[in-house]
Amino acid sequence: MDINIKKLIPFVSNYKKHIYLNVFFNIFYALFSTLLMVSMIPTLNVLFGIDKKLYIEPQYEGIGSLKKYSGDFLNYQMTTLTDLYGFKIMLLFVISIIIITAFLKNITNYFASYHVTRLRTGVLRDLRKKLYSTIINLPISYYSEKKKGDVMARMLGDINDVQNSFFQVLELVVKEPLTIIFSIATMFIISPKLSLFVLVFIPVAGIIISRIGKNLKAKSIKAQNENGIFISILDETLGGLKVVKGYNAEESFIGKFNNSIDRLLHLSNSIGNKNNLASPMSEFLGIVTIAVLLWFGAQLVVEDHSITSATFITYIALAYTILTPAKAVSKASYQVKSGLAAAERVFTLMEQENTIVDEANAVEKDTFNNSIKLENINFRYKKENVLNNFTLEIPKGKTVALVGQSGSGKSTIANLLTRFYDVNEGKITIDGLDIKDVKLKSLRSLMGLVTQDSILFNDTIKANITLGKPDATDEEVIEALKIANAYEFIKDLPEGIYTNVGDSGNKLSGGQKQRLSIARAVLKNPPIMILDEATSALDTESEKFVQVALENMMQNRTSIVIAHRLSTIQKADLIVVMQKGKIVEQGTHEELIALNGTYNKLVSMQSFE
């Protein structure tokens, strides 16, 4: 059994009832499919006038005489009906057998399909829930290396492929094979000689069809990877459309997209050709078999008289009914290969190790009492250290600002404090407790984060602000907006705090979006606030509004301010100047100006901007 099928079993096991009922109804479907063909024999016998009238009820003499007994018993019933009610009633009786059998075949097929649908949609839902949970819990570091489009392709396309293909397995191992087995068994009862030839044909056809499907799984993986690439290009295009248009780069992006689509076309055609060949190939091989059966069978009817013409016609009909399930089996086997490739990508993401997790002995912490300490921190994203032997203490109630040129490691501090990343060496403590020993949810509940990029979601203002406190009242939301200096523009909106902000908040200006981000942090009301270049993307007028909001928010809180614009942090209790992952100066604004060092140079440079 393929390892990916084994991984799917826990998801399928929740729907055992539907599996059992699907198998149950498929067994009866296969049985009634065969009986439908067999039920034509008495009708044909009546039409051809082959059977002689039988007036003595036959006696059952054991399994060996079952075939003869069945034929004689039906003949006896037909004779009785004809004598009592006439030929038309007897003909209606034998035709009604066909109708009843056809009804039973189709009603069992419906119930089998009903239960497999419940199984497929249920497993699809559970896979998506599990995969989304994995996606949202994976560390930020995972997405710095992966394309978002590829992750989206696995969630949208690959899981659908798993659903559409894997559950062909139930048809593959139950419905169609049983139909073939019942048909062949009946054919053996009718004529063992002819049936031996059919048994030779089946493995030969299987070998030919499997040869056609060689390398299908490998090509399916390539196609699914390419699908992820083109979704990534589309995602990047929509996200950066202003830049694309502003730099007249439309042709470049169209070229990248078209190249990806062309590669996907080539792979899809190759996979499709093999898939498309399976069904006609199996049908052609089946027709060849029937042609040979016609040649042999005609001799048995005309020369040997070992079977009647009506029985032979039914035999050929049974042989032909094998073609449909044989085609379904060959097609399903191809789809399963495609599903295996999709499952491999889904489970690779689902089993991705999350390195940022709670330790076994992690504790809850809901208060902040003394200080945060970064002790001898070394950290690197890849090979080279971004922070080198970095040590800093942030006392409770103080505002500590981190300044320095781009790449000096300022934002890395914010990433480490919130455990978006873990330190390589050294440790970070809060009230003397290593943050790795604090439950993640508990740690992040102590912190509010306002980033340079104002991340808003396509929802109402209230829904965006209450992320950290879902049960907040309208009054609490409005109070947070007032502190964030945002209520003055929201109160004039037609729907107030229930106004939708649009995709990524694009209905609002940059300054308005940032003030909503601040309001979100204010409403959460954490004891520690981290401001990661919260005003660097704003114009001067917006910055003034936001700066007032920040000052309101930072009152009576411990604040870590990562600043690019030095004018915003002159009131900080401690300014830490960083360069290449190290502290080169620290002190108040006045103390650092008096030093006439790196900080003074940075201030002088910005005063001329």
Task: Give a description of the structure.
It is a single chain. The chain is built from 22 helices and ten strands. With 609 residues, the protein is an alpha/beta fold. It has two domains: 348 residues, ABC transporter type 1, transmembrane domain (ABC transporter transmembrane region fold, Up-down Bundle); 124 residues, 3-Layer(aba) Sandwich (Rossmann fold). The strands form two sheets. A six-stranded mixed beta sheet has the order 6-7-8-3-9-10, sandwiched between helices. The chain has a four-stranded antiparallel beta sheet with strand order 2-1-4-5, covered by helices on one side. A hairpin with a 4-residue loop joins strand 1 and strand 2. It starts with a helix and ends with a helix. The model has no long low-confidence stretch (mean pLDDT 80).
Outline: elongated
Q: What is the CATH-assigned architecture of the largest domain?
A: Up-down Bundle
- Based on secondary structure, the structural category is alpha/beta
Briefly note the CATH topology name of the largest domain.
ABC transporter transmembrane region fold
Task: Please give the radius of gyration in angstroms.
Answer: 37 Å
List the helices and strands and how they pair.
Elements: H1 3-12, H2 16-38, H3 40-48, H4 66-85, H5 87-137, H6 140-143, H7 148-166, H8 168-190, H9 192-212, H10 216-239, H11 241-246, H12 250-304, H13 309-350, E1 371-380, E2 385-395, E3 399-404, H14 410-417, E4 425-430, E5 433-434, H15 440-445, E6 447-450, H16 461-465, H17 474-483, H18 487-490, H19 510-524, E7 528-532, H20 540-554, E8 558-562, E9 574-579, E10 582-587, H21 589-595, H22 598-607
Parallel strand pairs: 3-8, 3-9, 6-7, 7-8
Antiparallel strand pairs: 1-2, 1-4, 4-5, 9-10
Helix pairs in contact: 1-13, 2-5, 2-8, 3-5, 3-13, 4-5, 5-7, 7-10, 7-13, 8-9, 8-13, 9-12, 10-12, 10-13, 12-13, 17-19, 19-20
